[in-house]
Amino acid sequence: MIESLKKYAVLQEVIDRCNSVVLEILRKSTIREAAIALESFENGGKRLRPALLILTSQVPDCKPIDDIESPLLDLAGAVELIHLATLFHDDVIDEVDIRRRSVSARVKYGSHASVLAGDFALAEALHLVERSRLKHTMPEFLRTIRVLVRGESLETLHKFNFDLNEATYYEIISEKSASLFALSCKVGALSYRSEYADMLGHFGWNLGMAFQMIDDLDDMMAHPNQTLDCDLQNGYISLPVIKVLSNLEDGHKDRLVKIIEEGDFSPANEVYIVSLFNETGTINQCTKGIDKHLDNAAQTLHRFQPGEARDLLFCIIEDLKNYTNNQTQNFVRFAASG
User: Which of 28, 137, 238, 332 yields a CA-CA distance of 20 to 30 A from 122?
Assistant: First the structure.
């Protein structure tokens, strides 16, 4: 999804340093959950959130991104551990079998171990925040963890809710996903130039909203974008489904609801669903919403002087735009395949 994280050697070097902080923490403990967390962490991941924290910390003063001090790396490791904790908990809530193309911890070690591994990762994240000794960061982390929990709770309350509206959907993804992006960017700015913290936090929020909307398109069904997830099977009603349900006549609406309720996501039914999206213009409407958030994020960056970190953040935005365009084409091709 984001080629910039692999394309630029200087950024990969910074991510490697963030990884080292997390690996140090996970390898210190001898409890089983630490080993489970280590195994999951080493299975991969984009490491986007720690990369954003590092980049936004350097934007205000146009600092080179290889000029990173240890306290900042601790914060970057903390946001990645919080993200890891949410994945362990999501695996249990959603009964996920595959995580990062490997068997999930829930399947391999059981739900109890997965939950405890998530708790362990969360506790170690807060330890890293404390270790950084950077002012004003702990309250931001604690506030965001509360928001994350509220967002996850709201999402589970609305499983299989076919009357879910767009406002509630946006509230869910703002709290369960975009809030951690906002935290990453805000505390990055807080570490050096606090007067830009809210501005860059808003940049992160817009980026996180777009990222989650893209992810929802990817994971909505198994086949169109060749993912291993199917959120609809778990009853999660994302923006495309909300939009299409509001545009369908009773016959098609009833059929779509029945498919989702029965979990009958055969290739033929997925082609039918995607055809409904294309005929009603739903996918295009969603991609316009994604582009709007990405454009808002870009507008924030334009307020800063050009520099290495700012340029790389623009590259991340461009990668997400390109990926969204490819998604749209995939849906069109998939519908035509039927």
Answer: 238
Give residue 117's pLDDT.
97
Joined tokens for residue 78? 């903390």
Question: Quick one: pLDDT at residue 228?
Answer: 53
DSSP 103: E
What pLDDT, in 10s, does the model give residues 251-271?
889 999 999 999 888 888 888
- Do 92 and 36 touch, CB atoms closer than 8 A? no
Neighbours of 125 (CB within 10 A): 25
Residue ranges in the chain whose pLDDT is less than 50 = none
Q: DSSP assignment of 283-316, as one string?
A: HHHHHHHHHHHHHHHHHHHTTS---HHHHHHHHH
Find, among 301, 316, 229, the residue nearest to 47 by Cα: 316
- In the chain the domains, ranked by start, together with CATH numbers, are 4-337 (1.10.600.10)
Q: What is the pLDDT of residue 170?
A: 98
333: its two tokens: 């091709």
Q: How far is CA 206 from CA 19, 72, 212, in A?
A: 25, 22, 10
